[in-house]
Amino acid sequence: MNLKELLKSISKQISIPDVMIHKITTNSQFVDKNDLFIAIKGYSLNGHDFINQAIEAGAVCIVGEEDIRGLPVPYIRVSNSRLALAELASEFYGNPAKDKKIIGITGTNGKTTTAYMIKHILEDFGHTCSMFGSVNTVINGDTYPSLNTTPDALNLQKHLAISNDEFIIMEVSSHGIAQGRIHGITFDFGLFTNLDHDHLDYHGDMEGYFLTKAKMFEALKNDGYAIINNYNAWGEKLSSMLQSRAFSLITLGNKENDELTINKITPGFSEISYKGWSLSLQLAILGQHNTYNAAMAFLTASRIGVPTQQILKSLRTFSGVPGRFEIFRRSNGTTVVVDYAHTAEAFSNCLTTAKTQGAEKVFHVFGFRGDRDSSKRNKMITISKKLADETILTFDDLNGVPSAAMLQELKKLNEGQVISDRTLAIKHAIETAEENDWVIITGKGDERYSLDFTLPANSDKETVEYVLQKGVKKLKTRR
């Protein structure tokens, strides 16, 4: 693309060379001849420190925030490099979002499962869907591993440009919103699942966290739909804030003006009221929280035009998400669950589900990520000790925190068992559990380990499979 044409939206400078650039990049190691380098201040590195390296590699223009002079190539100073990246990436790829139907899902818990449910319903009805989320990226039927819940602006625009699918289903994280990754994208649907104590090391407090999530709805089209879970107090607050907006506000709750109400939840079966109709909602996956996820997916698919009975039929056949309440059985009758839960509310959902399914004893294995929001740890411990019979703390990603320091923190938090090697902690819980006991392993879901552990496994799922080994298979359907 012509560099002058690309930069016209952010600069009126006349000294920009009339050249064709090959690509945009924010990593100096990937710069080639005739590239545009955008310097971004990251969490641990500052891209402005690598400008000279980018120029030596062939960059013909630099965009950044800092006051830098005397460079041998044009330097465009902007107030926010991340927002400039989003705008330039969109321009470079031909503004691909304009031709897509985009569904954005935000909230602390439930984003992934809700996204998978919507994708399943729409594809059952004959639509094609791309999906960008924390587990996988799916484009044109091909699946790729995800690096972030919400891709960076450059990859997001590239994904949108590649996609030939009718719908884009996107998990939108608070970091993705705050860092401008979705800047310039407008949504046809905006979903809010819930809000729980998380990421306060980044956002400061719950109000700041909430207001960041709420910003996604500023990008909702005037003829779009906001679908809000009013069973969550923060959802009610968001609904109140959105009352005067032009788009349609659709809510899930138990008040008269809520479009869908959940009347009764039992394992695998719920009764809901929708537009005056009483309906049976059946799910093949466990957990009261998944009923709320299904209700959000139901309301979205209904507005897209999928018939009610078709939606209910699709939800009955939805088999779940990798690493989200994924169930295994041991030959002695023990149930083992791998889940991504990493907040107190998510813990409560998992542990309560085990109890309602008749667990005689519940063993809970989890850890804390180093250099992350430590203010939520006591609440998570409290919930685990309240609902589990045995809490076993172990390592998660250390993120640079010394292992000795993390081990000391775990021992201070838990008077019970601490087994730092995650694979051995899981092994201990499974081998200790007896018939009708449940082992709940939370925090990582299907994520790969960043540390080396004793057993030859790269994830919680692989560890469980290794321990169970012969004669025990993952359930084909999650009851």
Automatic annotation (TrEMBL):
Keyword Mitochondrion (UniProt): no
Binding residues for UDP-N-acetyl-alpha-D-muramoyl-L-alanyl-D-glutamate: 28, 148-150, 173, 179, 181
Keywords: ATP-binding, Cell cycle, Cell division, Cell shape, Cell wall biogenesis/degradation, Cytoplasm, Ligase, Magnesium, Nucleotide-binding, Peptidoglycan synthesis
N6-carboxylysine modifications at: 213
Positions of ATP binding: 107-113
First-tier enzyme category under EC: ligase
Places the protein is found: Cytoplasm
Annotated ranges, domain Mur ligase central: 105-300
Family from the record: Belongs to the MurCDEF family. MurE subfamily.
Matches recorded under PANTHER family: MUR LIGASE FAMILY MEMBER, UDP-N-ACETYLMURAMOYL-L-ALANYL-D-GLUTAMATE--2,6-DIAMINOPIMELATE LIGASE MURE HOMOLOG, CHLOROPLASTIC
Name of the protein described by the UniProt record: UDP-N-acetylmuramyl-tripeptide synthetase
Source organism: Oceanobacillus jeddahense
Species classification: Bacteria, Bacillati, Bacillota, Bacilli, Bacillales
